## 1
Amino acid sequence: MQQKAQEILDQLLGAGQVAIQVDGDFVQGDKVEGDKVMGNKVIQNIVQIYREAGGRISDERLSQAVHNYAGWVMENYGRVPLRGLGDKEYDMPDPDLPAVYVSLMAQKEAGRWQEREAEPKPVDMSSLLSQGRRLVITGAPGSGKTTFLRHIAYMLARALYSGDDKPVRQYLNLTGDLPLPIYLSLGDYHRYRQNNGDGTLIDFISYTLFQQHGVYDLPKDFFAQMLSRDNTVCLLLDSLDEIPDETGRFQASNAVMQLSANRSIGQMLVASRDHAYVGRTMLTRPFRRFVVQPMQPEQIAALTKRWCEAVYPSHLAEKETQLLQDEIAALEAIRKAQGEEPLVETPLMVTIVAIVHYNNRKLPQQRAALYEKCVNALLAEQHKGEEGQGQSQLELEKRGGSIDSKRSRLALLAYEMMRSSGDKEAGRKTSLQQMQAWLLPAFERAEGADAAPAKFEAFRQAMCDRASILHERGGQYEFTHLTFQEFMCAYHLAVNMAPLEIAAFFQDEERVRQSWWREVILLTIGYLGKTAEDKCLKLIEAMLARSPDDATTLAAAELAAAGLLELEMAAPAAR
């Protein structure tokens, strides 16, 4: 990890040439004295805009700095890591994002005075940038919001890097000068404000890009100047929902509104889960909201095809694609016959199903069961065929502890992060020191006080070396997807607490009314429905019985009903 970070840093600091592979071809960046960077008209437009603001830096240096920044964006957001495929991952190059990306559809939210008008038709998300300069993208967990924003960042950066803006203009339906892409997490901005007392979004942008990511070749005021010039940036603000509390989300939304009031700011796109985008969190005019729609069969077919082409040998890809698509169709047919909603209708669910197919060949019919099999595959690092069998497979699975112990420690970590979300060092990210404080007692009970530190370190290294469930970035640790954190927390509750205890936990601090806990509650019900049906029903009864007021009762009832509908029980009547 450190070596990789240093390699990227070396590129950003202009150490020789930068080479990034894009769709099989090499886009080669030259040194400052070369003609290519200075001949890049796309970059030169940005240079001229900064120059008009009074910047005191040579055109050559600024051109190279923007070039390096674009390369950094491509390096960070342009590839899709392959996980859950065993040691074969090391032999497979991570595919380029455009090679596997499938554009979805989004529905424009009807305005208050448009209720009598015909419902607007969904639009292809590739054209959203042409729908307005202030947009909000909401959707279900795993619906591809982050990937959508990163794909935009990659496409714009590639045009800046290569000087060829024709593909991005055609794909994103853009006219006028190309903006500079800036991708940020509003969850990170929330933690930045907690640690620094306050701070505007512009302060955070400068901090993130200069201090955290090491983009040192650009002038200190570069991004502040770009944000104050007309239509020069495309600001991609992700993860509003990863701010755990409503007050924090409101503060972030307010900061976005303040920045958007400057009409010189270019494009602004904000992404959030549906259930977190309510009340004071919602952005008012001029923002327009688009809701990501469930995947259609042809989109699912396209994504499964591209996934299989990325992970299977060419002579097997077509066959495996058909097998995977047949399994999904059979799974959905069973659910439809039982009166259930479709299960595989987001990019995340397609990916999880594909990983389970790769390792297990049989798909369960319920979300919690699918997540469990996916986590098991990621922890076991299973192999297909004869590879990894026998003693070598045993050693692989026990790296950092047994599968059961790794699952247990990750579940404890997820539980502590979820419930400590109000602290500065918790929620979606946590420090090594805090992680040790949470997990070391469990290692001491299992391994003894003397062996515990070494066992903890082995666990940490095993998890972060693969970076399939947990990864480290800038000294902070986080689950690779919030869905994994939510499922592992649900697993911890289901395995370690009685139904009455779980119900009490959900009612405490009004967790049943908080969007931060919604998925955990649903997945806890789902996991118990799969493993202990009687405990599941007792939990639901206890949730309703303990509700202290009408609002909490209503929230608990809605969650209980939603959880029941997800259960994989023998008969619909039981649900």
## 2
Amino acid sequence: MSSMNENKTKSVTLGVKDFFTNHQNLTSAIYQNFTSAVYQNLTTATYQNLTSATYQNLTSAVYQNLTSAVYQKLTSAVYQNRTSATYQNLTSATYQNLTSAVYQNLTSAVYQNITSAIYQNLTSPTYQNLTPTSTPHVYENIVPVTLLFVFGVVGNAIALSVLICSAKTHKWRPFYRLVCGLAISDGGGILASYPFAEYRYLSNFEYDFPEALCNYLGFVFMFTLMSSAMVVCCMSVDRFVAIFYPFVYNTPTKERRAMMMLGAVWVLAGILSSLHLYGLGASRNYYPGSWCFLDFIDLSSTSKVIYSYIYAFAGAIVVTLTVIINLMVIVFFVKNKFSQSAAKSNRNDLPVVLFLLMIVTLFTSCWAPLMVNIFQHAAFAVTGQGKTELLFLRMAVTNSVIDPWIYILFRKEVMIMLVNFGNRFLGRNTSSPLQKSTASTGKDVSETKRSVSVI
């Protein structure tokens, strides 16, 4: 029984063993077949699915991580390499472009700032009355200054000599008293100012006028020009009253009236020319540093503008009044000539008309430009100063130089004397046409005397 059970147990054991052996074989075969089949199928399907899913997920993850890592490394590497290369290239290109742009912008900005700063410093009260610093770039000829000085002093001295020598003839009538005052104003002003200008030229523009000397020269120049213009205006008024109002003119006090007019002219001209000494406006040294005048260039203060307008308005009124009065006198002589008979000689009237035309033309052309220039500066129409102002001053002084010649040497008596001298020198008849015309009739003689007394 026991053997039977034992055999039965062995049979079961062998069966189980065979089962497990077969199971292992089957498992191995199935695993191999399944692995191969699954791997092939799974690889294809999984690869396709996994590639798409993984690529998307991996790309996003890798991109984020890689971008951060690469960016940091790349930035550091590129920055180091690029900085060196870029700096060299950029420096050269930028320097050229930046230099041009900055220079243009900087030049404009710096110029404005420097100009403003310099203008504020140079327009200080200390600088206003001082001569500009001498500079070797000033090249002006001394000949014009010398000619104005010589002819101005000598011409007016000759005029005074002629007046004194011919005192018995003109008997110091009002007109000749005014002529004497004109010669004193012109000759004295030139004599009192031009030696300093000559010294400035002779020093090769190294001598600078001190402030006190510049104030003095400013007064002298302004007084000479203004008093000369006023005396000319008074002479025109004297002729006008003598022609149009002879009864009012011919009074016993006419000589004293002329002296009072002359004194009033000098006082008024002195007041107008000295206002800068009392704080209204200032004097200024003008190019090329050889003359001083009222400061109508730097009008930074209201007082300078007011002073410029006062002087310019006074000069404009004098010029306008002189021109109007002389034109009225000329029109009178022209109408008087055409109203006379044809038989009467016109030689007595022609010199008077020409004489007055010369006065109006010379005085206006020489003196008016300076007044106009002062008006332009006061109205800020023009700026700066240079050779233009120098030219206008010389023109105004030229009027003072020529005044004695046109008022004395071109008069009828002097012309007759010069004609007689020329005739004697050439051996001709000493009887001049002017003398013949004045001796033709008593009426002509009286008319001539009237013309001479008027002129």
## 3
Amino acid sequence: MLLYPSSSKASTHQYCQYFVIVTVQPPRRDFTGTSIAVHEGKELQLCVEIVDTTCLS
């Protein structure tokens, strides 16, 4: 699954990958400070948006 841009810095690439893994798994604490209470499907989509924005910025 290509959830992050292929051309990225090592740190950014790893950060995005970490973001995806954390969101896919049942999050114990939300790192953004907001409670995530959605199904895995929507939760994954939300993660993709966050990762995409984080990588580009």
## 4
Amino acid sequence: IEDKAGNMYKVDTGSSVTASSGVVAAYTSGSAAAMALSKAAYATDAANGLTSTANPLTAIDAALKKVDDLRGTLGAVQNRFDSTISNLGTTINNLTSSRSRIEDADYATEVSNMSRAQILQQAGTSVLAQANQTTQGVLSLLR
């Protein structure tokens, strides 16, 4: 992790925080948390261009704040992904429903067209039967 001043920190979630200047803060959990610093004093390492702070707790606090900031950012991204997934699920349901309504409308239209064709066919057969009866009636009168 790098803070705003450019200092690098390595945070090990198991047991330690290491600053770029070589300071290690180790802790143990329990009723009495103990903190031991591997170096008592900080100095500027001119050869590597690393600077350290005069207060090791400030470095640790800065590293923990950075971790908190990163966790907050990660949480926000995760919430956006969850929201996007939820919105996509709703969109899929809406599209499926719309498609179903369109297909149902086409089915209803086709059934209506088939019923119309059947009625026209029956009417045509009925008219033809009446026309045949009329000619047979005329022929029977002529006999």
